[in-house]
Amino acid sequence: MTHDKPHTGDEAAPSPEELREQVEATREELGETVEELAAKTDVKTRAQEKTVAVKQQVAEKTTQVRTQLRDKATHAAHMVQDKTPEPVRSKAAAATGQVRDKAVHVGELAREKAPEPVREKANQGMQAARANRAPLLAAAGALIALLLIRRSRRHR
């Protein structure tokens, strides 16, 4: 090991105990350096840590976007509803009820005829729809209202 001062010969040679202490200190420093280098070269662990971080970011962004979309759909439905005349809203409500009844009937028929894996997927879809019922109904009502307005303008 190198010393900061050159050996002039006037100094006493280090004792065996001092040499052992210097060797031990050097070993500890070397061990720490090797551990730091090993951590930097452990690509798999670093990639896994990065993957976890990215997954968390994606989950947070997905939740944020889902909330924004739900809010915008609800807002748009309210705007359409506010600007839609009462007779059109009544017709839209009646059409929505008819569509709902028909959908229930068709769903029951499909459930009776569908194989088990298809039923499981349909149940998952229904759970998702129930979880987002208000925005879905608002969007459906807005769509029906728009279609009725468009239809009434064509027949004038």
Terminal residue distance: 99 Å
The helical percent reads over 70%
Number of strands: 0
Largest sheet: none
Query: What characteristic shape results from the CA principal axes?
Result: elongated
Number of helices: 5
What share of the residues does DSSP label as strand, in percent?
A: under 5%
Q: Rg from C-alpha positions?
A: 36 Å
Region (Disordered): 1-31
Keywords: Membrane, Transmembrane, Transmembrane helix
Protein name: Poly-D-alanine transfer protein DltD
Biased composition (Basic and acidic residues): 1-10, 17-30
Write the layout of secondary structure elements.
Elements lengths: L15 H26 L1 H41 L2 H28 L2 H16 L1 H22 L2
Helix pairs in contact: 2-5, 3-5
Q: How does this model look, in words?
A:
The structure is a single chain. This protein is mostly helical. It has one domain. The protein is built from 5 helices and no strands. It has helices at residues 16-41, 43-83, 86-113, 116-131, 133-154. The longest helix is centred in the middle third of the chain and has 41 residues, at 43-83. The radius of gyration is 36 Å and the shape is elongated. The chain starts with 15 loop residues before the first helix and ends with a helix.
Descriptors:
single chain, 156 residues, mainly alpha, 0% strand, elongated
